[in-house]
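Thioredoxin-disulfide reductase structure dump, as promised
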Amino acid sequence: MSEKKTIKRPEDCYDFLIIGAGVTGLSAGMYGARLGLRTLVLGANSESELAIGGVITLTDTVENYPGFIHLTGQELAKKIEDHARSYDNVEIKNERVTEVSKKGKKFKIVTDKDEYETKTLLFATGTKWRKLPMPGAKELENKGVAYCALCDGPLFKNKEVAIIGGSDSAAKESLFLAQHASKVYIVVRGVELKAEPINQKLVAQNSKIEVLLQTNVTEIIGEKFVEKIKLDKKYKGKDEIQLSGVFGAIGHIPLSGLAQSLGVELDEKKEIKINRNSETNIEGVYAAGDVVDTAFKQAIVGVAEGVVASYHAFKYVQAKEIEC
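structure tokens r here:
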């Protein structure tokens, strides 16, 4: 294994370094570059397999981002990436961050390929899917149990599937799956499907989709592949439904481990606590996007938080006059 490159100033010292290259990180990188900061965006972290573009690239339809009536998540991410890359003073690299630490007035970032120093740091690390907890879910993952409709939905053409979850994500996933599957069940443990009104309406109008309220899946059953799910209440006289696929949509887990290792303050959900300036409890360290404690998780919200972080990182660099 080759040794990591020794940091050579100023080549490996940045004004603003962003961990996470989803739409939040890419937008922060674009804006940091506009403000004249020497900026580096790193596309992966030690807790996530997602690289440049982030989780939105797994979304089939985006209709709530201002300026675009309809486009895919991949298209939106690419537009923002291209905008960021149009500036000469921003670099975007697909490297996995494994360690962050304080080094004097700056921060040291270690990746699987290199090491860097930065005057300011932004965590835009996002989240990962919360895995289904019932028996059979782990054993049958990638054997009919999945978490991304866009990735795996086409594999279930003309088959029956279920989505476990009661959020807007579950509704949107069901609408995509209905383009391929013959039947889609949404199994909701609560008294209602908590989706945006437009998605509620589309689900109700789709004859392929059926919502089962106040119902829990207690087991996913199958030998080599998913064969059926077991319910905690009767459905058409039985407590089992024969199907071929089960998709989890029960929320996300914040990827805040790197931030926590630096001493960044988290809330009880392990989300990074920020103020209105996207500042954390550590001077010069910012956070934005789905990893933070903002209640409303949307791409446009994360992008805005990232831009706010860029501005305050710029003000911080100006005020502190930290030398590389």
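Residues 1-7 have pLDDT under 50 and may be disordered.
lmk if u need the other ones
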